[in-house]
Design a protein that fits this description.
This protein is α+β, with helices and mostly antiparallel strands and about 200 residues long. The protein has three helices and ten strands, in the order E-E-E-E-H-E-E-E-E-E-H-E-H. A hairpin with a 2-residue loop joins strand 7 and strand 8.
């Protein structure tokens, strides 16, 4: 990370201050906002880079994997073009779910993740894709390079979580899962989100 020395007097912004990863789009960094133990939906504040409380989770369904985003990615026109029926990208960094055999119970960390698939999701007309990855060097899942190599139930739980995680009493959810695809499509989306970021914010 090529920043002037005085920059390190302060904490780097996790979206803009970290690298995208060691070998994108295959191996990326994942900055973790939520763990499977969190009953609160946390998100990084775009202005400050600190976690804030977005909302309490309404149901008993908790994220079945580590959940966060890939630094220096942005969901705009190129990501939208890969999403059927999307009106626009969601204007956020690209979301990522990371499968780990050992419980990781703290957020505000980053880790090496291997991209294996994607859940393409439409949220109020916005492309809000969820990359699926495995923790690099994980003793159970570290060998996985394709979505089909994961147990089906893991992907089912992820899909269920994202169908329900924005439920509001008295309102019909406007979330639609468009497709669940393997590594090839996921890596195209990662690459497109990097290009969208570079255009919006510079390299």
């Amino acid at each position: 990370m090529n920043f002037p020395a005085p920059f390190y007097r302060w904490r780097p912004h996790p979206w803009h201050g970290l690298e995208v990863g060691p070998e994108p789009p295959d191996r990326v960094f994942a900055y973790i906002e939520m763990t499977p133990f969190d009953v609160i939906k946390y998100e990084v504040d775009k202005e400050t880079g600190y976690l804030y409380v977005d909302r309490p989770q309404r149901t008993t369904s908790l994220t079945p994997a580590l959940y966060g985003f890939i630094p220096r990615t942005y969901c705009d026109e190129r990501v939208k073009a890969l999403s059927e029926s999307a009106d626009r990208g969601d204007g956020d960094p690209l979301d990522i779910c990371v499968i780990s055999e050992r419980p990781i119970n703290r957020a505000e960390i980053f880790l090496n993740a291997v991209v294996v698939g994607v859940i393409q999701l439409l949220d109020h007309g916005e492309a809000d894709d969820k990359i699926i990855a495995v923790l690099e060097n994980d003793h159970i899942y570290g060998h996985v390079r394709e979505l089909d190599d994961l147990p089906d139930v893991i992907v089912e739980r992820l899909a269920h979580y994202f169908r329900t995680y924005k439920m509001v009493k008295g309102q019909e959810t406007e979330i639609k899962i468009l497709s669940i695809s393997g590594a090839e499509k996921a890596k195209k989306i990662v690459s497109s989100s990097i290009e969208d970021y570079n255009e919006a914010f510079g390299r």
